[in-house]
Specification:
The complex is a heterotrimer of chains A (290), B (278) and C (430).
Chain A lengths: L8 H27 L2 E2 L9 E2 L3 H7 L2 H32 L6 H7 L2 H4 L2 H12 L5 H8 L13 H28 L4 H9 L4 H12 L1 H17 L2 H6 L11 H10 L3 H28 L2
Antiparallel strand pairs in A: 1-2
Helix pairs in contact in A: 3-8, 3-11, 3-13, 8-11, 11-14, 13-14
Chain B lengths: L6 H30 L3 H4 L14 H7 L5 H31 L5 H11 L8 H10 L6 H26 L3 H8 L4 H30 L2 H6 L7 H6 L2 E2 L2 E2 L1 H36 L1
Antiparallel strand pairs in B: 1-2
Helix pairs in contact in B: 1-12, 3-12, 4-7, 4-9, 5-7, 7-9, 8-9, 9-12
Chain C lengths: L1 H42 L2 E7 L4 H17 L4 E7 L6 H11 L6 E4 L4 H6 L7 H5 L9 H11 L7 E7 L1 E4 L1 H7 L7 H11 L12 E4 L7 H10 L10 H15 L12 H9 L3 E6 L4 H8 L4 E3 L9 E10 L6 H12 L2 H10 L2 E2 L2 H5 L1 H5 L1 H9 L3 E2 L7 H17 L5 H13 L2
Parallel strand pairs in C: 1-2, 1-3, 6-7, 9-11
Antiparallel strand pairs in C: 3-9, 4-9, 4-10, 5-7, 5-8
Chain lengths: 290, 278, 430
């Protein structure tokens, strides 16, 4: 690490990335932040006016908002958590030697490569209460004798969509972690073998510490991504039945598509603050290291 | 360490969990494929069939015959490829700066990149459309490349920063002591070891731009349509054209897998390169 | 070094490529944007950009054919360029709005009436009053249809050009009716009875195999639901009235009584049609758009009746229309095109092929429409067909408030009273 006087190089190196990013989204984001303090409903363009924190006040007294917030927490914790666990496991498995590894690696990417349009529809179709293959399988196995209406009742709908997002996200973690695994030198494992370390010890002492930053960052990025994701829920349930699968991002989406941009911007701002609160300690830690 | 493993051990620790996870990951794909070759009468039959009684490939014929599905495939492919190259280049440079230099405003810049992806893009559509229009980029692939790069760059910068942090900096310091300058050390030492991570990030960028819908529907017209928009055209008010939709899905997924099949070999190459140097 | 060089080369190449396409496009861009208008002033050549969605791939081809024919036959030098956009569960209107607000968008577009207040509030649509007054075919369209268009805009003007409608009626399976020993219901009470009677356990295993009615609880279900509300004497203007609540109670009772599939809370168009076609339901409500596939599936064993009346009678009239954008340079040419679709050859071609109800009286008279059973039921239902009041709250009410409130009432999370009060609030107050 170099700590000299002023150095132009780092600025030059980040300039292209920064330029593209700020050039496109800087103004729209600023605009949206301003909108969150306005009554900005394009259905009533003649009533657009600054209203201070009124949107936020309305938000905090909106029961649908609170339910959406609660759903978002569950969605992110279980969605990302289990994606990570299974993705990590899959990465370890795919890193071992076995016949046909290349093919298995390639096909494990499938859920992630599936167009969002199709994911929602296919899973909806699998879960279907009348013709769904999942119910058929469970009944053939004798686990149930009446079809479960997975997406049509509040008790099972949210769990079902969470399984879908887990399915979609496993390959992401698997590939990202698999890449990280390649940078760990084999010498460390060989040394551990000589010391007679068990498999689990090697995992805890070598693998995980060497991947610390990658794990932190993949989880952080995935949390942001999942918290903002709309298409799976939108295509499977649209947030229903009875708002039971409506997360904050879906609520924002629903409000934004009916052009109540002021209200949805304030919710988006709130979501952004929540994510920032999660992210900041993360950032602190990762910068302290070195 | 591999040799000592007995078959039983390998079955318990490798094959069993692998098969379980792969079953979960691949079953919906299998089901998509089955749906694409089922006649519609079987789709809503009272008995669920796990292999169609009458196989039909008409959906695939239709897609390439009447539909000219190759055009959106070509469009998606070029947009995704260009986005991947642009994003990887600028992000690797930025990530290198973030991990190997200490400079004023570093945290602010990194934070800026992160918050960029926190804001739902459905709120940015109208101004973005206006920007693209005023730049005369509307309905060109470039508008999509720019829009996608905007959202993949922050992610890639962060990803690559994570990988670079996990690389011991002793690697290049050794090379620099040997007289190599910074650029040379980066190319000779860092890049080979980083290759697997660059590929993984590249896969992310490629898939993201290959499958994106919201911007694609706004910034393309008939000539520049990408796959997700074409697929969505198959869902009207009068229901889903399951055969065409699932066949289109299968055709969309396969190229990505083939590309990754070749790319993943690099994952191993990177490893050997790294261990030689390290 | 090789790798970095090749990467750099690739990067530069792509940049050059980007620059090239951008410059090519910018020249193209000016042709479509401005050159047209200049041309049109001089020699009458006009290019119109038309956006539409297609409910399936045949309709997509059909529209292209109609456009080609129009381009070849019109004598005013008008060329329509059709661009298909995904319906996307109604997202079509959002795409259209975003583009129009962003300063782009088409000259003419296919349009749903529910979006009218949003577009007129932002001054995006051309007022058609003058055009229609001067139009020779003005009287070929029923006056009450113009009234519907006026109501939707919330003004005394017409901004939306009629194109075709869809009238909801009840599909039923004569064979199942026979098995249950019932006749086609002529009153609302009989209809409810029929639903109960046709719910059957055909194989005697204790589970229901045929449900009497395919209920739609997902988005779009407010249309058939409205018939229940009106049959008890309620209406959309006051959803918290006793009558409206009674209609809702009937709806909920059908679900809790097990006379409709348990998935009804989230069943949308796909599911109700699939359930009917697979024989899982004896009746369902839809329009002529699905008549062709019903006949294909059942042949003679499918028929239809108008939703019967009780205290009141109502059925939903769906609509597909066209609008002209204020931003267009060619309003006259655009009106030529929308009127071709409303009363010209385009009207006939489109409705014959799609089975939608024509808006042109002349086309309605054609044998094709007079001889068709389902079309006859549609036309029979017309006198009491209506639309949900179109306010600026309507879209949100249809897409979000209605499905969620209904599903919670069906599942028993909310009482009928609470549900109706909140639906009333979401639609009519604010």
């Amino acid at each position: 690490m170099i700590r000299k006087k002023f150095n132009i190089w780092p600025y030059l190196l980040i300039a292209p990335a920064l330029l593209i990013v700020t050039f496109v989204v800087f103004l729209p984001v600023i605009e949206a932040i301003f909108m969150s303090f306005q009554q900005y409903d394009l259905r009533r363009p003649d009533q657009i006016a600054y209203i201070g924190f009124m949107n936020f006040a309305e938000m905090f007294s909106d029961p649908v908002f609170w339910q959406a917030l609660k759903n978002t927490v569950i969605w992110v914790v279980f969605g990302v958590g289990l994606q990570f666990v299974f993705g990590f496991l899959l990465a370890l498995l795919l890193n071992q030697q076995f016949k046909g590894r290349g093919v298995v690696r390639a096909v494990s990417l499938i859920p992630w490569a599936t167009p969002g349009v199709l994911i929602g529809l296919m899973w909806k179709w699998i879960y279907d209460g009348s013709y769904g293959v999942l119910n058929d399988l469970l009944m053939k196995l004798g686990l149930i004798d009446q079809p479960i209406i997975f997406l049509s009742q509040t008790s099972t709908a949210f769990g079902s969509v969470i399984v879908t997002i887990i399915w979609q996200g496993i390959p992401f973690f698997a590939i990202m972690i698999l890449a990280g695994l390649q940078a760990i030198s084999t010498e460390m494992y060989e040394a551990a073998d000589i010391d007679g370390a068990t498999r689990l010890q090697k995992l805890w002492r070598i693998t995980i510490p060497s991947l610390k930053n990658v794990i932190f960052i993949t989880i952080l990025l995935r949390v942001i991504w999942v918290a903002n994701s709309v298409d799976i829920i939108h295509n499977m349930t649209g947030g229903g039945p009875s708002y039971s699968t409506q997360t904050l991002s879906v609520y924002i989406f629903n409000k934004a598509t009916v052009l109540d941009l002021g209200y949805s911007s304030s919710m988006a701002l709130f979501l952004m603050l929540m994510l920032a609160i999660v992210a900041i300690p993360y950032l602190r830690n990762s910068f302290k290291e070195r | 360490m591999v040799k000592q493993k007995s078959l039983l051990q390998k079955t318990l620790l490798l094959y069993l969990p692998l098969v379980a996870i792969m079953l979960f990951l691949l079953f919906p794909f299998y089901w998509t494929f089955i749906t694409s070759i089922k006649p519609e009468s079987e789709l809503y039959g009272s008995v669920v069939t796990y292999w169609p009684e009458n196989i039909t490939f008409t959906a695939y014929q239709k897609l390439f015959g009447e539909f000219n599905f190759l055009l959106p495939m070509f469009n998606s492919f070029s947009v995704a490829t260009i986005t991947t190259i642009v994003t990887l280049t600028v992000s690797t440079l930025a990530a290198y700066a973030f991990t190997r230099f200490e400079f004023l405003g570093k945290k602010i810049f990194m934070g800026l990149f992160l918050t960029n992806n926190m804001f739902p893009n459905v709120l940015l559509l109208i101004p973005l459309f206006a920007i693209m229009r005023s730049l005369n980029l509307l309905y060109t692939p470039i508008s999509l490349v720019i829009a996608y790069a905007t959202f993949t760059i922050p992610f890639s910068v962060w990803m690559l920063t994570g990988y670079l942090k996990d690389l011991p900096s002793s690697l290049e310091e050794a090379a620099m002591i040997d007289g190599a300058n910074r650029a040379k050390a980066f190319v000779k030492v860092i890049l080979p070891v980083l290759m697997p991570s660059i590929i993984a990030t590249g896969v992310y960028i490629f898939i993201q731009s290959w499958n994106e819908y919201t911007f694609a529907v706004l910034f393309t017209n008939e000539e520049t349509r990408t796959i997700p928009v074409t697929l969505k055209n198959l869902i009207g008010q009068l229901g889903v054209q399951w055969d065409l939709l699932t066949a289109g899905g299968i055709i969309t997924i396969i190229p990505v897998c083939i590309i990754f099949f070749f790319a993943q070999r690099k994952l191993i190459e990177g490893m050997t390169a790294g261990s030689v140097k390290g | 070094m090789k790798k970095i060089t090749s990467l750099l080369v690739l990067f530069i190449l792509s940049m050059v490529l980007m620059a090239c396409t951008a410059s090519i496009n910018s020249s193209e861009g000016t042709t479509t944007d401005e050159d047209n208008s200049n041309e049109s002033d001089s020699d009458g050549e006009v290019t119109l950009n038309y956006w539409y969605w297609a409910d399936n791939s045949e309709y997509s081809q059909l529209m292209q054919d109609i456009i080609t024919e129009f381009n070849e036959t019109n004598d005013k030098g008008i060329t329509v360029v059709g661009e298909e956009y995904p319906w996307d569960g109604g997202g079509y209107s959002d795409t259209l709005f975003t583009a129009a607000m962003g300063g782009g968008g088409p000259d003419v577009a296919a349009f749903k009436l529910t979006a009218t207040p949003l577009f007129t509030a932002n001054n995006l649509l051309v007022n058609l009053d003058q055009f229609i007054n001067d139009w020779e075919d003005k009287d070929d369209i029923e006056e009450n249809l113009y009234d519907v268009m006026r109501d939707a805009s919330g003004t005394d003007s017409i901004y939306v050009m009629p194109w075709n409608t869809q009238i909801l009626y009840v599909y039923y399976r004569p064979s199942i009716f026979e098995e249950a020993g019932i006749e086609v219901p002529t009153t609302y009470e009989e209809f409810l009875k029929a639903v109960e009677k046709t719910t059957m356990d055909t194989d005697g295993d204790g589970t229901t195999d045929i449900y009497g009615f395919g209920m739609r609880g997902a988005t779009g279900g407010h249309e058939p639901w409205g018939s229940f509300i009106y049959a008890r004497g309620g209406n959309f203007e006051d959803l918290s009235s006793e009558e409206a609540k009674q209609g809702m109670q009937d709806f909920v009772d059908l679900y809790s009584g097990g006379f409709v599939p348990p998935t009804a809370t989230t069943d949308g168009f796909n599911e109700i049609i699939a359930n009917f076609k697979s024989g899982r339901t004896a009746m369902t409500i839809h329009h002529t758009g699905s008549a062709a596939e019903m006949i294909e599936t059942f042949g003679e064993d499918v028929s239809a009746f108008p939703f019967p009346g009780g205290e009141g009678q109502w059925t939903s009239m769906g609509d597909t229309n066209n609008v002209i954008f204020e931003s267009t340079e060619h309003k006259e040419a655009a009106f030529e095109w929308v009127s071709y679709l409303a009363t010209g050859k385009g009207q006939e071609d489109w409705n014959v092929a799609t089975g939608n109800v024509p808006v042109s009286k002349t086309v309605q008279e054609l044998d094709f429409f007079q001889d068709d059973d389902f079309m006859r039921v549609s036309i029979e239902s017309m006198p009491y067909a209506g639309i949900v009041p179109i306010k600026d709250t309507t879209t949100e009410w249809i897409n979000v408030a209605w499905p969620n409130t209904i599903s919670s009432a069906l599942l028993g999370d909310q009482s009928v009273e609470e549900a109706m009060d909140s639906l009333q609030k979401a639609l009519n107050e604010k």
